[in-house]
Amino acid sequence: MRHTFNKVYLFVTALLFAVGIILGEEIIQTRGTVPLPRTLLREASAEKNAENAPLNDAPENADAKSKDPIAQVFFDRSFLSIEESLILQKRREIGTQTKVAVSRVAPAPRNVLITDVKNGELVTITWDIFIAPPQKVLIFRSDDGGASTLVGEVAGTEPGYHDTAIKIGSRYSYTLQSLSEDGEKSGTAGPIITGPIEDLVPPTPPFLITYTFEDNGVILKWSDPTATDLDHISIYRSSVKGDVGEKIYEVLPGVQTYTDAGVEDGRTYYYFLKSEDKNGNQSINEIVEKRVGNPAIFTPVF
Predict the structure, then answer these.
(1) Which pTM was predicted?
(2) Looking at 81, 103, 125, which one is the last position of a domain?
């Protein structure tokens, strides 16, 4: 009787185990996982053989060595889900880094304005201040239709640039670019054309003018203005106050003195000194007065 009961018990147990295996495979295939590994099937078969052995002969540590194949498969599935989540997160991070790298290219300078200040020495280029400044702003120039070359660069925080390497009468075409910290160049702003370059600014007049009277005439001395395009100093003389008079001499830069020997004793003369640059611009009038002879006619001269 007991032997028959054991057979029935083992048969029912084996039947339930087989049903569990079939249901587990269906669940795994439905969820899209891989089929049950062969190693787990071998372990399940070994456990089944162990259960068919007599109860008295079963080892005491059989439960410790047995494994649940269904639980193992679900553990594998959970591990794969975690791994896939990590891979997906990494892809998202890479995508974010790519977007940030692309957005770091600085825009080209905007609202560029070229100004010829009409002094023959300077062209000023200005642009709008950047909200997020680039590393540099590059300035390219083409002279009279020639090839465009880099003539200057400034920090991205600067709002403008002064081009002093210019020539009067020339035409210039400017283009600008921004340069990012990664060395990426923006699109170009321009070309913007200016010219022909003019010089309409007069030089400053001679200053520190002094005069003395000696036997050989009236000696004038002065200091030249600092204009780089100074051509000469013109000296005018008149006997009427407030009148420029006639030009009597032209003095080259650096001489800074002139002796007027064509004067007559007892007469008052008015001298007018004027700076003139190489483009014909003349300074504002500077008139000085000098009476030749004894300044106090009633005081004897020894």
Answers:
(1) 0.50
(2) 103
